[in-house]
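lol so apparently i was supposed to do this last week
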Amino acid sequence: MSTKHSKAAEKFLKNKAQAQWHNETLWMVREKRDKISKEVPEWEQLRHKSQDIKRYTNSHLAELLVQFEENATKNGAIVHWAKDDEEYREIVYKILKNHKVERFIKSKSMLSEECGLNPFLIEKGIDVVESDLGERILQFMDLPPSHIVLPAIHIKREQVGEVFEEKLGTEKGNSDPTYLTHAARKSLRDNFLHAQAAMTGCNFAVASTGDVVVCTNEGNADMGTSCPTLNIAALGLEKIVPNLESLGVFTRLLARSATGQPITTYTSHYRNPRQGGEYHIIIVDNGRSELLADADHVDLLNCLRCGACMNTCPVYRRSGGYSYTYFIPGPIGVNLSMAKDPRKYSDNVSACSLCLSCSQVCPSRIDLGEQIYKWRQKLDSVGKASKEKKVISGGLKFVIERPKLFNFALKCAPIVNVTPRFMKYNGLNDWGKGRELPEFAKESFNTMWKKNKIQGEVKR
Ligand code: SF4
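anyway here it is w/ iron/sulfur cluster bound
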């Protein structure tokens, strides 16, 4: 019955210090989000507004995307459409090949993770450098992000010190964050100056103006795009927002929800190509338009990728990003993975306590927890329901539907309290791993209620 998630979580939890620190750090981010959101009296109205705008956008996607394309083209950008990950990779490669690019610098983009861009380009002989500090650390370590906003949140500074010593020649044993950041900055400066092309992701694409809006705290997207005259931006088609007024709603919500800041340090609008250069914008579908037809899950397209659902999730905080089998972890990752391929990613739905805290913090009011519950209901229909759970549920149903049998079972239940431990805690009891079963009460509530009711009637 163990799922891939629970096995990976078990591994993560073996390092108790790391597990505790991971949990506490992310909870601290959640608390910062709570504090700053309470400073905005209209916070809940903003969340509603965000949901409304996203729902409007999803139902007018075709016209808004075309409007964006028209305006971006008027601004001088070249717009491409990619139906899937393969087309997206090929478009990027073709642009780079046409310009004989060998040195390529990127700012953080979960879309490029989704579509496996870096390994593809590296295999073609292009030197790809990630410029976001967390992403750069992970690139040196050959690891994927474990969080969508704080990609290297699971890595301790001592580990960073060791990696930088090996890759950048920093002092042995020096893990001072300022020293390490300066070392990364110095090395990246060289990459910024010599890159022949730069790529950014996109937080929002404004239909009415053709702007690509990129939010960073490090300014690395701006540094990367400052020297090369060939620039590329890529966006999932759900990143469209109708106009600058609606953009204001999202920028007020995004940084507050993500890191508890009033706004990201840099909110950059990219519109025109640089003088004498080219600006390419790639709009990627890769399964998103299929979600439009799924009434239960279409709201997943409302996601701003703020990471708040991860920071609040008790399972994510205690099991780490790598315990999930999809490149995006946490509540939004569980949902997106199931939307992508329910048979392949069904293990992730067990990574949820159904506390619904994610639904409460989501700035776009996505009912994440409720949707995970719906995916669980669908497991049987995709042939992924656990056989053991089906047998147990069938047995319980049989007993519960027969009151006499049910009451008899309740009477017998306290026997479990004195049953030898090896009979209760063994390979058949996954739940009991690391947990103690609660004691059965000597008397069931039903028996007590009947007894007290009769006594009460006699007293009267
Ligand atoms: S689902 Fe909501 S809370 Fe989670 S990352 Fe997306 S916008 Fe943020």
